[in-house]
Amino acid sequence: MEGKTYLEIGADGVAIITINNPPLNLLSAHVMLSLKENTELALQRDDVKAIVITGSNRKFSGGFDVTAFGNKGKHGKFGFFSIDFITDILEAAGKPLVAAIDGPALGGGLEIALACHARISTSSAVLGLPELRYGILPGFGGTQRLPRLVGLRKALEMILKSKFVNGQDAQGMGLVDAISSADELVTVACHWAKDILAQRRPWTVSLYRTDRLEPLPEAKMMLEHARVKSKKQSPNLKHPLVCIDVMEEGLIRGPRAALWKESEALSELRQSDTCRSLVYYFFARQRTSKVPGITDMGLKPRKVNTFAVVGGGIMGSSIVTALIVSNYRVILKEMDEKALLAGIERVKVNLQDHVKKGKLAEAKLDKILSRCKGVLHYEDFREADMVIEAVGENIYLKQRIFAELESYCPPHCILASSSSMINLNLISERKELQNRIVGTHFFGQAHLLPILEIVRTEKTSPQVIVDLLAIGKKMEKIPIVIIHNSTGSVMNRMFFPYSQAAMALVERGVDLYQIDRAAEAFGMTMGPFRMIDFVGFEVLTAMKVQFSKNFGERFNESKLFSVMHKGNQAGETTLKGFYIYDRDSKFIPNPDTMTFVNKLMKLSDEEIVEMILFPVVNAACFLLEEKVVVKASDLDVASVMGLGFPEYRGGIVFWADTIGPKHMHSKLEKWSETYGAFFKPCAYLAERASKRTSLGQAKSRL
Ligand SMILES: C[C@H](O)CC(=O)SCCNC(=O)CCNC(=O)[C@H](O)C(C)(C)COP(=O)(O)OP(=O)(O)OC[C@H]1O[C@@H](n2cnc3c(N)ncnc32)[C@H](O)[C@@H]1OP(=O)(O)O
Predict the structure, then answer these.
(1) Residue pair 391/401 in contact by the 8 Å Cβ criterion
(2) Rounded distance between C-alpha atoms, residue 277 and residue 300, angstroms
(3) Domain 3-hydroxyacyl-CoA dehydrogenase C-terminal: where (predicted)?
(4) Which of 111, 248, 319, 345 is the residue whose CA sits 20 to 30 A from 176?
(5) pLDDT digits (tens, 9 = 90+) for 409-460
(6) Closest residue (by CA) to atom 1 of ligand 1?
(7) Which residues carry out catalysis?
(8) Beta-bridge partners for 589
(9) How far apart are CA 69 and CA 701, in angstroms?
(10) Half-sphere exposure of 434 (CA within 13 A, CB side)
(11) 66 C-alpha to center of ligand 1: Å?
(12) Which residues pair with 441 in a beta bridge?
């Protein structure tokens, strides 16, 4: 990835430097050096009075090319770009410099704009410093200039949460000086630069501004609060704390000293395992929507405006919620008036939850809800572009529903089942329907988790998969395409051993709550028992039935499960499971489960993590062996999105490869001899262990 910049000098004496490295105008070392050269040239020329920096094809810059973090290169230290160029040449220029921003201005891209003396943006431009996503910190002065432009509070929020803002909001917070239409952007920026020269506008050097900074005692409290929060939320991560320290350095020892600290921190962090894993994960996530043999066929997604959902239970109503929030019209069908009212009520409660969590403005609630129309018959399905069946796991019921759909839905209508347990090939025998049948499996609750499994049967047409990928994108779900329809799909097949291994340990005397604590300390979003409560016993029961039928000795029959189930402690939706919940989702251990906390078997946290996660790695290996997904990296993304595996460890397969298949295989083999076939390693894992090759062939691009 090379790229360059172009210099063009207008008759009015304004030089326009355009960053050109399609498609996103990323900043390679090449681009940075070319930008430096052209800036120096423009500064030397007498016919240039002012400079505007912009990006080609309506994109300012997507930031530094993250694959280059590992490179030492000719200008090894990022400090060369940050201090020698951006600070001492760009920001210190004796001619006014204005950034003209459209499209993305992210990471290093925004940092270049921050060093300019003013910023003009379109209202739809996207600005942000997402470096923490990659285990690093903003390294071109962003930790210093952003707080000085928008105040420390907002800067902390943007940097620590990798939060993007649009041009309009950026203007509101003082990040950009004016908004322009895309067509006039560069002209407005040129005028602005000439106005600075004529002293009609301020010539602002961001690095030395102090008027937006909070008073020091208040700023220190904010930084301390951010530290405490970060340690609590991500105790295993060092880079957010390093970033906070660097921001503090600027307030105490001045921005210049802090720029050096920032660049040294960047040099160190970019070589960390966390950075390697997070860069790997970034590309793994980007690649989920690329399915060889399908997305490379040149097919365009068709328009899908109206959905119909059959069944308004917990899953159905959650799917309706996710769809209407994404601007789709939805027809919800139930069997009778009572069930319909209950389904719509559930949708309402889901939306109210979104309002409570600040994800939705209360004023929009009624409008969003009005996109859902309740019906008791299939007549309205004649206008549906896609139907999602979300009834219980009963094949006969599903077959009846699909037979009805056939007579009411138009011929282009996609026919989906939300089931992950039932073989989609059995849902309809009618040949003419089969290329339209697809699985759309939302793990847990559709409106809460950002993942969508798209399950293809041998007959599902590539067009339907392309349509579903576009729908997933609109719903802001990460798609995992399953190319081989199998019991349990991907996430359930990884979740099931996670929960089963944990139950097996409790039956042998390990403290139930220690298991959750150990898993969470490792970085899992939820320990296995919290997760069982979240998914719900109803779903787990359905899984249990199918898994025991399909996976024989690999299935572990847990007494613990039956006891809980009998006691009607069905998980978070009933406010009672392994934990007791209040209406605000706060929870405490359920005293009824104390009988299981006998602590007879003592394991260290590390041993617990191995015993609950190695079976998940084994499950991932089974999925690779059966070719259920096209690439191992899809399992990494599914493990992070569905199972809550820490993304800073790269995902389950990537992590397994850092430990090594040989070690995992020998542990699983040993446990299978002691505790039974549930732990038995599969042939895929055995082969890789004996050949000492990697499980996923997944490498970070660093
Ligand atoms: C020193 C500095 O402080 C350090 C930095 O600058 S860190 C980098 C900060 N920048 C980012 O994080 C931007 C990440 N990118 C994005 O969020 C999105 O790509 C975007 C919003 C900019 C654009 O989205 P969209 O238009 O859908 O394009 P998208 O498909 O994502 O990207 C196009 C290609 O560029 C790649 N790409 C995007 N950003 C990249 C980056 N920063 N580095 C390397 N490759 C990148 C994508 O992987 C994709 O590659 P492919 O065509 O081979 O699949």
Answers:
(1) yes
(2) 33
(3) 489-581
(4) 248
(5) 999 999 999 987 778 888 877 777 889 999 999 877 899 889 999 999 889 9
(6) 139
(7) 111, 131
(8) 579
(9) 9
(10) 12
(11) 8
(12) 453
